Amino acid sequence: MERTLADSIQSNLPQRVELMWDIRDQGDTPRCQEEYLNLCLDLGLNQTKPLASRICQLLDMGVNGSLTQEILLLEIAIWRGRLELDRADQALAELEKYCHEKMIPLSGRFQFQAGLNCLARQHFEKGSYYFSLAKRQSELRESESKISVKAYFNLILCLEVMGHDVNSHLKRFRSQFSRWQNEDWARPIRQQLMALAARTAFDHLNLEELRAIAKEVDPGQQVAFTMAFLSSLIWLCFPEGKQGVESLVEIQTEGKQNWLSQYRLNTIKGLLVTHDLKSPVKLDAKIERLYCWTHKWLRSPNEFGLNKVKSIVDNIGHLSGDEIVSMTTVKMLENSLRWIALFSGRPSEEVEGAVHCVNSAMRNENRLLSNESQLLDALFALRDGRVELATDSLKAIYTDGRPSHVDGRQMADQFISVFASALMNGNDLLVPEGLEILYGAFRPMLVQGSGEESNGIRLDMGRHKIQIVQNGEVTDERQSESLARLLLALSLNGPRSKDYLLSFCFGISGYDPINHDPKIANLISKANRVLEPYGVVRSSRGVVFLESSIENWSFLGTNAYSLQGFELYPVGEDLSGICASPAEDPGKGKLDGWMSRSRIQDNLGVSKATATRIISKWLAKGDIERKGNGKNTRYRFPNGSVPGMEAY
User: Fold this and answer.
1) Do 245 and 215 meet the contact criterion of CB atoms below 8 Å apart?
2) CA distances from 308 to 295, 336, 350, 519, 595 (A)
3) Which of 338, 552, 587, 616 is buried most deeply by CB count within 10 Å?
4) Residue 517 has pLDDT above 70, yes or no
5) Number of neighbours of residue 179 by Cβ within 10 angstroms
6) Is the pLDDT of residue 562 over 50?
C-alpha cells in the first residue's frame, strides 16, 4: 500500500507543480502557499521539519518572491529526479532570471542545485565550480549550514571523479561532519561517505581501513552501492569479514528500492538475475559481477557456476563500446578472463579480444589486482613449462613490499612443487589440492607489506617515484616516469637493449643511434645520480645493464612481467563522446573544444614530457590545432576525436 501511494505521489508531481503556477498566476497566493506546503508534506520533506517550518513562516509573512524561489527550486529537483534534464535546466534558468529581475542575490541553494544539474549531465568540472560557490556562500548563513555540508561532499565527489587525490578533503570533511552525522538528513551523506572512504582505501590497498569500514556498517542503513562490492572482496580475502557481509545481505530497508544497491546485494548472496545483465545496468557493475563470480567459481568449481560466469562474459562481449570504465575495472575484467582461460581451456586470443573491446579511463591500476595479475603470469608460465620465469614472478610476489628476511624463492618453490603437477594434467585443472595452494598464494598478496626494509630502493610506479631507503627511512626521493621505468626494467628483467628502453621509457619506436643515444645517455646519467653510491647503470654495445649492491628492491603499483612500452588500455579512437556517471569511477570527461596541455596530459594519463612529445607529433601531422603562446596556449582536435595512440 505504501509503495502504491508513493508511486501515485511521484507520478502526479509535474501536474501538481503546474497547478501551483496556475494558482499563482491567478493571484491566489494563500492557496498557492497551501498547495506548496501540502506537496512538501506528501513528499516527506517535513521529516526534519526545516522546510515545513520555513514555509509556515512564509505563510505568515506572505513573501511572494520567496515562495516563487521555493517553487522553482522544488521544480528543479523534481525534473532532475525524473531525468528530464532539459526541463531542470530550464527551471534553473528561470530562477536565475527571476533573481536578477528582482535584484535578489543568488543563494547557496541556487548554486547547489546548479551543481547537481551539472552532475546529472556528467559535467564534473563545472559542477565542482558551482559546489565550491555553494559551500562558500552557505557557510556565511546559519540557515544554510546543511547546504554547505552537502555542497562540500558533492565537491569531493567531483574531485574524485576528475582523478584528484581527495584524502585531505575527506579528513577535513569528516571533522566538520561529525556534528551532523547523527541527524536524519545527514544519514545518506554518512552512507556515501563510507562508500567513498572504502573506495579510497581500496585504491590504496589499505585493508585495515577497509576492515574498519566493514565493521562500521549499520544493517539498518541503506547501503551505498560500492560498499557492498568492497565488503564482498573482504569476504573473499578474510574469513573474519564474513559476518559483516552477511549483515549487509539481510538489509530490508529502502536500500532495496535502488536497483544498483540490490544488484550488489545479489552479487554477495550468490544470485544472478537475468535482468541484471540488461540495460540500464552499467558496464562496471557487470564486470564487478564477473570478478566476484569468477572467484566464487574458483573456490567451488562446478558447471553451474561456470555457466553463470560464461553468461556474463558473453553479455560483455556484445557491447557497443560506448561506455567507459576505470583502469581498476578493466583489470578486474582482464584477470577474470585470464582465470577462465587458464582453467576452462578458453584460448588466450579470446581474452585479449574481450579486454580490448572495453573503453578504459587512463588511471593508475590497483595494486591488489596487479599482484593477482602477476600470479596469473606465473600460472600461465607454469602451464607452458617456463618454470624459471614462473619462479621469478612468484618470488617477486612474495617479497614485494615485505621485510628482507622473507625468502621469496623458497615460498615460490613450495608453491610450484604442489601446484605445477595439477597444471600439467590437461584441462581439468580445478583440483582441490591445487586450489588450496592457489589461495594460499593469493592471500599473502592482499596483505600490505610492512615497508620495514632496512636498506633498499623502492619504486612506486603509481606515482613514478624512486625512493632510497636507509635504516628503514627514506633518505632520497625523485619523481620521474622515464627514470622509474628504466630502473623497473633493469632491476626485474636484467640487461635490456637500447631499442627496448627507448620504447619502454619514452614510448618512442624505431631506435636511431644518432638521435636517440643522447636521450638514453642522459637518462642513464640521471639514474646514476640517484643510485650513487649503491649502484651504477652502464651501457655497452647497445645493451644497458644495472650493477647494484642493493638486493632489496620494492615495487609498488606495477606488474613485473607485463612490461610493454607505454602499455595503454584502449580508450577507443573517438573520445569525443566519452562520459561517465559518478556511480562508476569514470574518466576525466570529454576532450573537445579548446583545452590546455595539462588537460590533455591528465586524460592521457602520462607525464608532462610524454604529453608534450605526443602533442608535438600530432601538430606535425596536422592531427591537432594550436592557438596562443606560453601559458595561454590551447589545443583542439579538428576532427572531434583523439588520434590513435599506437604510434606514440
Assistant:
1) no
2) 12, 13, 18, 52, 45
3) 587
4) yes
5) 11
6) no
Please identify which residue in the block is written with the cell numbers 517535513: 46
Task: Indicate the residue type of 248.
Answer: L
Cell of 52: 515545513
Nearest Cα residue to 562 out of 395, 386, 433, 376: 376
497566493: which residue's cell?
29
Give the ranges where 82-206 is alpha helix by DSSP (H). Answer: 85-101, 108-120, 124-139, 145-161, 167-177, 187-203
Question: Facing residues of 325 across strands?
Answer: 360
CA angle 479, 481, 484 (to 5 degrees): 80
What is the structure's pLDDT at 426?
A: 38
| Dihedral angle computed from the Cα positions of residues 12, 16, 22 and 28, in that order, rounded to the nearest 10 degrees | 150
Q: Which amino acid is at 532?
A: E
Instruction: With H, G, I as helix, E, B as strand and everything else as coil, classify residue 165.
Output: coil
Cα–Cα dist 342/296, whole Å:
16
| Residue 233, all three cell numbers | 572482496
What residues does 555 pair with on adjacent strands? 459
**C-alpha cell of 236?**
573473499
d(CA 520, CA 498): 7
| Chain centre distance of CA 327 | 7
> Cell for 193?
561517505
Lowest-pLDDT choice from 143-157, 193-207, 516-530, 537-551: 193-207
Q: With CA atoms as reference, report the closest residue to 576 among 640, 644, 643.
A: 640
Q: Sign of the C-alpha dihedral, residues 294, 300, 303, 308?
A: negative
Helix (H) or strand (E) holding 394: helix 387-399
Q: Taking 60 as the threshold, does the pLDDT of residue 466 lie above it? A: yes
Asked whether the beta carbons of 520 and 544 are under 8 A apart, the reply is: yes
CB 59 within 8 A of CB 78: no
Question: Residue 574 forms beta bridges with which residues?
Answer: none
Tell me the C-alpha distance between 408 and 142, whole Å.
60
Cell digits for 424? Answer: 600439467
The string of DSSP codes covering 303-342 is: HHHHHHHHHHHHHHHT--S--EE-HHHHHHHHHHHHHHHH
> Of 645, 624, 462, 466, which is closest to residue 566 (Cα–Cα)?
645
